[in-house]
Design goal:
single chain; mainly alpha; 0% strand; elongated; Membrane transport protein
C-alpha cells in the first residue's frame, strides 16, 4: 500500500491540510461556539500556508 510514492504523498498532504470551513458551518448550524471554529479555521490555514506547505513542497518534490 505505501510502496506507491504518489499514494503516500497524497496521504501526507491530506493529513496535514487545515480545518475546513465546514467546521464553521456545522458550529453555526448547531449553535455551538462559532468563534472557536473560526479561530481554528484561520489559525490552521495560516500555519499550513506559512509552515507546512513550504515543507511539503520541498520534501515531496
Amino acid at each position: 500500500m505505501f510502496q506507491d510514492p504518489v499514494l503516500l504523498n497524497t496521504f501526507v498532504i491530506l493529513a496535514t491540510t487545515p480545518t475546513a470551513i465546514n467546521a464553521v458551518l456545522a458550529s453555526k448550524l448547531y449553535q455551538l461556539r462559532t468563534d472557536l471554529a473560526v479561530c481554528s479555521f484561520i489559525l490552521t490555514t495560516f500555519l499550513y500556508l506559512v509552515v507546512v506547505f513550504p515543507l511539503l513542497f520541498f520534501l515531496l518534490k
